[in-house]
């Protein structure tokens, strides 16, 4: 009597296929989360609709360059900073009107820093969702 040798069943290469699919999934996840260029039509600064009032402790800059702090008009940046305590000078928050020219905003920021503000932050509506 003759014994038949048991043949090993052919294994399917499913593990290799699963690994390839997993690597492709990881690749597309990483490629999809890389920083994409901003849409040219995107408008980031939007401050006109701030619920009718500015956040507390912010210097509001109107489109014509007028400044207001806690509802009181401010004459100039130097006088504004001098009236602040040392703690308040650490961070000065600005809420610029969207129509305010950038040149005016940069100039005002320089004046605030020169007058003694340690850090000047712009408060805007969130532009990217």
UniProtKB/TrEMBL annotation:
Organism: Sulfitobacter undariae
Protein name: Biopolymer transport protein ExbD
GO process terms (BP): protein transport
Membrane-topology descriptor: Single-pass membrane protein; Single-pass type II membrane protein
Keywords, comma-separated and alphabetical: Cell membrane, Membrane, Protein transport, Transmembrane, Transmembrane helix, Transport
MF terms in GO: transmembrane transporter activity
Coiled-coil parts of chain: none
Primary location: membrane
GO cellular component, one term: plasma membrane
Segments passing through the bilayer: 12-34
